[in-house]
Queue: 2 jobs
Job 1
Amino acid sequence: MNVTDSLLRELPIHALGTVVAATKASTGLPQSGDEYDFYRSFPGFRAFCDSQGNRLLGCMSQVMQYHGCRSHIRDRSKVGEMEDKFDLLVDANDAVLEKVGMLLDEVTGVARNKQPILPAGLQAPKTIISSWNRKKGKSETFRLLHAKNIQRPQMKFKERLDNSNTPFIPKIFVKPNAQRPLPDKQRPEDLDVPPALADFIHQQRLKQTEEDMFAHPYKYELDHFVPAETLLEEVKPFLPLQDVPCHFVTTLDQLVELNEKLLRCSEIAVDLEHHSYRSFLGLTCLMQISTRTEDFIVDVLELRSDMYILNESFTDPAIIKVFHGADSDIEWLQKDFGLYVVNMFDTHQASRILNLGRNSLDHLLRLYCSVESDKRFQLADWRIRPLPEEMIQYARADTHYLLYIYDKMRTELLNSANGQQILLQLVWQRSRDICLKVNARGFSPGELTCV
Ligand code: AMP
Ligand code: MN
Ligand code: ZN
């Protein structure tokens, strides 16, 4: 028997033993609201609890950091409430279990020997150790499907790519669906008041402008957004890929036409592909959108400076935007295109609330659509043009089934809450919180959320 096999067999048993022992020990501790309050009246007990508690938080924070999760569990200025701490922990557990699931798949052969598929004409990719996946001296290897000598797309951009590590200023100059207008740019000399008062108002405005500069342009609309109630309806089956037209959007006219179509939909699915191997903050390379009857692949490298026109549909509170794990997508949309989302439903958040155990899109595709997705392109170089057919098909599958998954999950969320909206509301709330994120730069890897 080889060493790896025996290790693989013994490790889970060892891990299970440790977990059982820890659970047993923790249930043996005085319970809160019961003996705990009595014991806590002794200073010695209190001091011991505090020091051990801090030690535990420190360990947890380190484990979370190692897995690239938000880990400020110890920082009282950031996480005050027990509930917030618990949320961080659930996030981290999800991420760790997701990784365990993937590794077990690999061990049991489900995902064994997966080599990246090679688009015709591209060289075999080498395993590249890239700077962003080197963690604290330990290098991990990721398989990157990487096109060499590709023309840097940013050469074509109308504005320079800002890779600075400074706070991000929203790129928005028109605000469709506004309930509050963008901050006023009126000059002091235009005010019909005495000069001294005009000067005072101007000073106040300068202060305000600085705050507005970094503020979320749709905060007011998101804060006041009320999602529509979901009624229990029969879920219509999804259309197979081959029965749905797939449009490649590369020109402004096509983008305008797409926006017109989206404005006639009551729900759409959206996803992005991003490239961050050779650039500090990376760049968004592709946007996939699916309606109930059509799929669209938008070449956002070509249309980068025109993408803002989609704000008309993306911020329309009457159109539901379905994403899966939108944390990064929302940041990329804001940073690269000045695009904002109002009325979003995140199927990753729904999966967490339904306690599906594994919350990746592959898992939902398998569970609800019996579709085996091929994640080999996830780390592909999405700057490649023309996009190879295999990559288009991969990208398309990321949104094609998402509206069906959204229907199924809404039904399950209703059923799990005995027909009440409570669980659905939780998904809307968490999705709204993601939309409210402002794109803060200078984050440390430990601050990145993991999906
Ligand atoms: P997805 O939401 O799965 O379509 O992924 C969107 C983008 O996130 C991809 O184009 C990659 O740039 C990035 N990405 C996804 N998964 C990973 C991963 N495991 N490691 C690093 N980057 C990833
Ligand atoms: Mn995505
Ligand atoms: Zn994707």
Job 2
Amino acid sequence: MDYQHLAELLFPHVKETPEDIEKKYPKRNLPEGAKVTRFAPSPTGFVHFGGLFPTRVGERLAHQSGGVFYLRIEDTDAKREVAGAKDGLIRTLSHYGIEFDEGAVIGGDKGDYGPYMQSKRADIYHVFAKQLVSEGKAYPCFTTEEELKELEKVDKKAEIKTKDWHETEDYREIQQTWRNFTMEEVEAHLQAGHPFVLRMLAEGDPDKKFKITDLIKGDLELPENDKDEVLLKSDGIPTYHFAHAVDDHLMGTTHVIRGEEWLPSLPRHIMLFHYLGFKAPKYMHIAQLMNIDENGAKKKLSKRDKGTNLDDYERQGYAPEAVNEYIMTLLNSNYEEWHTANPDKSFEEFPFNIKKMSTSGCLLDFGKLTDVSKNVLSRFSVDKIYTDTVDWAVKYDPDFAACLSADPDYTKRIFAIGRGGKKPRKDLALFSDVKGYAGFFFDPYFAVVDPIDEKFSRADVVKTLDAFLASYSYADDMNTWFDKIKTIATELGYATDMKAYKANPTAFPGSVADISGFIRVAVTGKQNSPDLYTVMQILGETKVRERIAKMKETL
Ligand code: GLU
């Protein structure tokens, strides 16, 4: 077979050679050991929470080594593409502090190794496709997609899953017929305007294994590839496999970090790199994120599960810092230890280590995420928690945002409660928790949500409120303020000595804690609140008196 002639027949429009293309993609000038990594999503909708894993690993490895981290949009499947998804994913990732050194950006590209959208690279793929054909390593297959589907249906009837179809004798037989074409047949098809797909001619023997080291999974032995994978679809657009080899070579990727679902395709990819004369990159296949199903068993996080869409985390009010922190705890087993020793350092200072990555699926644990979030938010400065909460509320709870920002100093005093010091309060896991925690500081959100327990006499409650109003002075310091509450307790026969009360609770109608509880409910609407004295200092005398008086009316 004259492969050169075949290549001309199939790609008459291609005039450039691989050497011409290579010249446009010179070797990157980077320091020794610098890693070039990429995030290569298909813009098929939202960013999956699990997508943050390989992305963060790529970002860390590149930036830790003085390398390059870039974004390539794998939009070769027009059927699955969702309009606006590319810009959406750039925005989402940027919310999590993931910025690319080069690659696709909103409205275009930045960098010298583009275009970074695969749909704009068809000409490049064709040059390499032509090369493969001219060397007898790829061939046209004129089977139409319909025919292919029919064949698959026949096998489905025979109860063979499509996935396994490629392993069957039938498939091998069909592959043989595809391979046995003549130049005359190709010419006739082309003349008749029949579309074709381009397949690689796989010369592997699946009974033989080859060795490869995955930087996460370790040393692997994989079967050689004998599947004539489609490289170009009938519209001339490449498949993932072909585009991966061409792009990662030209763009100088040193480490391919991707989901482990791609591991079965690795033999094909290695073969392709070899056919094309490219050095294969290093691979890291990351285990998929796991979830707990209704029976308590671990299962892969599916698209329908709660917590899949990364944008939902923002909507719910998770701080991006908290999500990042949580991802780090999942990614590197020693991260938490490091973080405890270095509480004030950013995760970017952590020496991220591939060897400390989990080889099996990490579990998405919302309880843990909440704990991490509480810690992260508790360490925010007053200004930061104020600004970030307001920014969040402007987007997702504008009425509350208006309340929060009406008097910034007032709101900041609220956020200052229990903040700073060695053991800050950990009341907030989400920006959306602020309303439940501190909404009562704002009249539109004040309501008595936890009424005073029925077991206390209403007369005692009224007496407490009256006595408090009579003795309250805004200028009192905390001790004087509390002494006054103690006096009220004593007058009503409530215990002020908590030890005595605990030893004999039935001897008293209640304790001083219950007395301040009555006042607390009147002032905050809740049984639990931040320190009541501080709350009153922030609310101011007028509001305190107003609320207590109002409470009395309802009793
Ligand atoms: N486009 C592929 C995906 O969406 C990328 C896999 C890779 O990173 O190579 O999964």
